[in-house]
Write a structure and sequence with these properties.
Helices cover about 35% and strands about 20% of the residues. The protein has helices spanning about 1-25, 25-35, 35-50, 50-55, 65-75, 80-105, 115-120, 145-155, 210-225, 265-290, 295-310, 335-345; strands at about 125, 140-145, 170-175, 180-185, 190, 200-205, 235-250, 250-255, 320-325, 365-380, 380-390, 395-405, 415-420, 430-435, 440, 445-450, 455-460.
Length: about 475
């Protein structure tokens, strides 16, 4: 009883101190009025640094918006300025709820299973037999024109390699007559093998159907590729890893990737923000994929995630995941560390927790942290998704990335990609090939592709100067 009284007294002191600070600060009131929670909490932190009384009243840090609102409901008398700010916030919340509903209706994010079934039934099915030999052949970089061939010839065939241990790739001038099928930039399709009826690949154009969402995604990818090291230096463009990693090959450990080009106080702050935005982007990507692709593809990922009991991409714990813990059948065992490494091909240094300064922590593999809260910024509106399923633990972001024809050994059958933007330059290259079936897929903005990485595939070279670090053409 005494303990409860002390707790109530502490809560009353904290709420009174915070409410008094907010109602006296114009900036805090403005953030409250507009329901800008991140700025509101940041402002409270700033005020606490300047006020010992406020700092002592909130030793665990400032409250979130929901807690603050609950405090206000019990606070009497309510100051006029605070009452007006709360009224404005209620209006903003109502408007935001309607805007979010309209946004979701404009995309497949709100689809139910019947919508997915109907959509998949509308896609054309193209049967392609496996040719006698793959085309383009394995370990060949593909140039789709004479101009691209000339641009890349010396870089690929004679110049010093970024990693001399790797076998040098050959260069091929594409012979279009040897292709089994060319899928145009506006065409969607399901490719199937006629002998087995199995899906070879699914290509979906206009995947998210919302240009503002694409602009948001494009900005996040551009920033990520600028701030992070590429994991494949021998290939054109950038391929930056985000999420959890199995670590370096010589020292494996499952933790959040640390691949910043520059490690300073500012870069750590920027990286934390990029982690949040990137994790949100991949969660949107995952939700789109679940609602657009065939169940057998999504079930393949779910089986891998459930079997290995892996964490989701949660910005290294920043997305306030709702922890749904399930005992592992044999705690401490299982292929989580080794299989994930082959899945994401981690070749870089990895991780940090919290502020990228502490010693890497060990992640519990017997937990399923699959849900969290994230924000999607559409122009001036920030749509918050609460208790939403997060993306699988790791992914990559690319800009003008291409790779020779190759295959990958992964612990799951399918790979997914989402091209959100592409320049309008003609004959720019950077198209996708499923060489195992001699299929060429012309890339275009808002294109989602599901394919089997264990089969030969690759991306053609971009029509850019290999030494140009900021070419006009961009594909992300």
């Amino acid at each position: 009883m005494v303990r409860n009284s002390k707790q109530k007294q502490k809560a009353h002191i904290a709420s009174s101190a915070v409410i008094s600070a907010v109602q006296a600060d114009p900036d805090a009131l403005a953030y409250l009025s507009s329901n800008d929670e991140p700025s509101f909490i940041q402002r409270l932190s700033h005020l606490a640094r300047r006020s010992a009384a406020l700092r002592d009243a909130t030793p665990r840090g400032p409250p979130n918006m929901r807690t603050f609102i609950s405090w206000c409901s019990n606070y009497q008398p309510m100051p006029d300025t605070l009452s007006a700010a709360l009224k404005d916030r209620r209006t903003h919340v109502a408007d935001a709820r309607l805007a979010k509903r309209d946004f979701l209706k404009s995309t497949p994010l709100s689809w139910i299973p019947q919508d997915t079934t109907q959509f998949l039934s509308s896609l054309p099915i193209i049967y392609i037999s496996r040719p006698s030999s793959p085309y383009p052949p394995e370990n060949y970089c593909v140039a789709e024109s004479e101009a691209i061939y000339r641009r890349w010839k010396s870089t690929l065939l004679t110049d010093k390699q970024p990693d001399a241990r790797r076998k040098r790739s050959s260069l091929l001038h594409l012979d279009y007559s040897k292709l089994s099928y060319n899928l145009g930039p506006e065409d969607s399709a399901i490719f199937r093998d006629p002998s087995t009826r199995d899906i070879i690949a699914i290509v979906i154009r206009n995947a998210c159907r919302e240009s503002d969402l694409l602009d948001w995604a494009d900005g996040i990818i551009a920033d990520g590729c600028k701030e992070r090291k590429s994991i494949r230096k021998e290939d054109s463009g950038t391929l930056a890893q985000i999420g959890y990693s199995a670590g370096a090959r010589k020292k494996t450990r499952f933790d959040w990737v640390l691949n910043l080009k520059s490690i300073t106080d500012r870069s750590r702050t920027v990286a934390a923000e990029t982690d949040r935005k990137s994790s949100a982007l991949f969660s949107v990507f995952w939700q789109l994929a679940k609602n657009l692709l065939a169940p057998e593809i999504i079930d393949d990922f779910k089986l891998f995630l459930d079997t290995n009991d892996l964490k989701r991409m949660d910005a290294n714990g920043q997305l306030t995941a709702q922890y749904n813990r399930r005992p592992h059948s044999n705690p401490g065992s299982g292929p989580a560390e080794t299989s994930l490494k082959s899945s994401i091909l981690a070749e870089n240094h990895y991780i940090k927790p919290e502020r990228y300064t502490e010693r890497p922590r060990n992640i519990e593999h017997n937990s399923r942290d699959i849900k969290g809260d994230y924000i999607v910024q559409i122009k001036s509106r920030a749509f918050k998704f609460v208790n939403a399923e997060l993306a699988p633990p790791a992914g990559v972001m690319g800009e003008n990335y291409s790779r020779a024809i190759h295959y990958e050994n992964q612990p799951h059958k399918w790979g997914l990609s989402w091209t959100v933007s592409r320049g309008t330059e003609p004959d720019a290259g950077c198209h996708f090939f499923i060489a195992e079936y001699a299929i060429r897929i012309e890339m275009s903005p808002d294109t989602m592709v599901a394919w089997r990485p264990s089969e030969l595939h690759g991306t053609s070279l971009p029509n850019c100067d290999p030494k140009d670090k900021d070419p006009i053409f961009k594909q992300r």
